[in-house]
Design brief:
By secondary structure, this protein is an alpha+beta fold. It has one helix and six strands; from the N terminus they run E-E-E-E-E-E-H. It starts with 6 loop residues before the first strand and ends with a helix. The relative contact order is 0.21.
């Protein structure tokens, strides 16, 4: 019997160290971590993504990121501005 994979979001896991946070990536862009999916890792959406592309599964504005990439190729933005921006994006993406 199969089960649906777990999907974690900033709402299901408030206070998570990665979900709902802003990261600077290897490509120079800044990404918002909007979810984590079992067996796939984290889903990141570029902060500057147009609204019509924020829900894309894959593409120029959305990336699937290994858990091992956090702290290696993606680094959290700990600045006050980065923290505020992450909180605002969490509110904008409310279910």
């Amino acid at each position: 019997m199969s089960r649906d994979p777990e999907i974690a979001t900033p709402y299901t896991h408030p206070g998570h160290e990665t979900l709902g946070r802003i990261f600077k990536a290897w490509d120079g862009h800044r990404y918002f971590c909007d979810s984590w999916e079992e067996n796939l890792g984290f889903w990141m959406t570029r902060v500057d993504a147009p609204a019509e592309h924020r829900a894309d599964k894959f593409g120029e504005f959305r990336r699937n990121v290994s858990e091992r990439a956090i702290g290696r190729t993606l680094h959290r933005d700990y600045t006050d501005a980065g923290e505020r921006e992450g909180q605002e994006l969490v509110k904008q993406n409310a279910p």
